[in-house]
Amino acid sequence: MSSPLERAARALCELAGNPPGATMDGKPLWQDYLPEVRAVLSAIREPSESMERAGWTADLPFTPSIKVGTIWQSMIDAMLKEGA
User: Fold this and answer.
1) Digit-coded pLDDT (tens) for 18-44
2) Are 4 and 24 in contact (CB under 8 A)?
3) Residue 63, SS3 per DSSP
4) What superkingdom heads the lineage (predicted)?
């Protein structure tokens, strides 16, 4: 399975009207969209409070001191490191 970065870049490439598997100068065209994907991931790295609440799955009242957002940030950071 491809990485989330690759899947997002491929989706942007197709959204721009390029066919799946398109290449330019022998390189997959979707790779040109990686900077945009990285910019979006960097922009959404900080979760909102409502996102943290949605990520709270314990059968307990929401507790802001338990940093659900830290998990989100770690996941975004891991995606940004893929294929770096």
Assistant:
1) 999 999 999 999 999 999 999 999 998
2) no
3) coil
4) Bacteria
Evaluate whether 3 touches 79 at the Cβ level (below 8 Å). yes
Q: Which DSSP symbol is given to 45?
A: -
- Hey, what's the torsion of the CAs at 52, 53, 57, 60, to 10 degrees? 130
Residue 27 bridge partners (DSSP): 24
Rounded to whole angstroms, how far apart are CA atoms 38 and 9?
Answer: 9
Q: How many folded domains does the chain comprise?
A: 1
Contacts for 25-28 with beta carbons within 8 Å, 24 or more apart?
none
Domain hosting residue 33, numbered range: 4-81
Residue 72 contacts residue 44 (beta carbons within 8 Å): no
